[in-house]
Amino acid sequence: MTTRPTPLLLGLTLLAVVSMLLALHSGSVAIEWGQIWSALTNSSSTGTAHEVILQLRLPRAATAFVTGAMLALAGALMQVLLRNPLADPYILGVSGGAAVGALTAMLLGAGTVWVSSSSFAGAILSIALVFGLARGSGSWTSHRLLLTGVVIASGWGAIISFLLAISPDQNLRGMLFWLMGDLSYSQSPVTGSILLFISLLVCLPLAKGLNLLARGELQAAALGISVKPLRLVIYLLASLLTATAVMQAGSIGFIGLIVPHMLRLISGSDHRLLLPASVLLGGCLLLMADTLARTLLAPIQLPVGVLTAILGVPVFLYLLRKNAS
Questions:
Q1: CB distance 261 to 80 below 8 Å
Q2: Sequential DSSP letters for 201-250
Q3: pLDDT attached to residue 254
Q4: Rounded to a whole number, what is the distance in angstroms from the first to the last CA of the chain?
Q5: pLDDT of 2 above 60
Q6: For residue 178, what pLDDT is reported?
Q7: Would you tell me which CATH number, out of the four given (3.40.50.150, 1.10.10.10, 2.40.30.170, 1.10.3470.10), belongs to the domain 5-324?
Q8: Do residues 308 and 250 lie in contact, with contact meaning Cβ atoms separated by under 8 Å?
Q9: Are 179 and 251 spatial neighbours (Cβ–Cβ below 8 Å)?
Q10: pTM for the predicted model, two decimal places
Q11: CA within 13 Å, CB half, 81
Q12: Residue-range domain boundaries for the chain
């Protein structure tokens, strides 16, 4: 089943706007729609509503959207790179390295800035390890990259278990929430937004090459695609997107795996449409999940990764069943 590009992108853009407005409206403090409009359009306005929207809800909502968009784009790229429908942004151990860095900082009692910085440093270390070991003294293949990533991820998993085992009880809740995804301490998403914009600008001209690479490296090479440079660009972009997403919000699963699949069922596999649609749908899905995580059992906040699965699994199964019938 295929969908025309313009209606799909317009529909996802409208969904993004609606999701953002609902995120600004929903919360423990009741805020009217008029107050939201005033806060967004009038910089001189004051009051509780203005402070809540601009200092709390808007930064968190923007971070949620950008993080979901980065994970979905990284997942679409990883599935092409590894030619594996089960590939997601975390399959090569990036989130494991980030988690080790973040949990180590938490164990040492570091602040939010140090936790984010340590997370990003751990992710970059994991990227370098996987690429260096997979490449060895020669070129690397998708299968070798995948195997190396899985082994490195297993190693990080063992270190994570060790850190949790030796952590004092008062630190465990924060560590576990981070591992399941937590936007409570989200900062301005400027860095992630810039990286997302640049990545999309780089990827769109490569969409034809991605379409061919998804069919096989030999076929892509036979049709004039420089496979090795393309694979390297895909790997670096997907890894940086994942590292930045994990730095902003912790390890949020499911989105990078399922969003590209959902869009392939809806619109086909042309990456000229799939990549921007993944950005929009991934951002919307995480934004809606975070809104529910904040409000469903308020004042208790749920791990946002749990909500992404609850929202996405039935939708994906419905589309899969509809596509097969």
A1: no
A2: HHHGGGHHHHHHHTT-HHHHHHTT--HHHHHHHHHHHHHHHHHHHHHHH-
A3: 83
A4: 11
A5: no
A6: 82
A7: 1.10.3470.10
A8: no
A9: yes
A10: 0.89
A11: 29
A12: 5-324
Instruction: Decide if 118 contacts 102 (C-beta within 8 A).
Output: yes
Selection from 116, 124, 109 nearest residue 170 by Cα:
109
SS3 content of the chain, % helix, strand, coil (to 5): 80, 0, 20
| Per-residue pLDDT tens digits for 276-309 | 999 999 999 999 999 988 888 777 788 888 888 7
Q: Identity (one letter) of the amino acid at 78? A: M
**Cβ-contact 253, 88 below 8 angstroms:** yes
How big is the CA angle at 306 (ends 302 and 308), to the nearest 5 degrees?
115
218 vs 192 pLDDT, higher one: 192
For 30, phi and psi rounded to 5 degrees? -75, 125
The closest alpha carbon to 159, from 78, 102, 110, 112, belongs to 102
Sign of CA dihedral 171, 174, 180, 185: negative
Chain-centroid distance of CA 262 in Å reads: 15
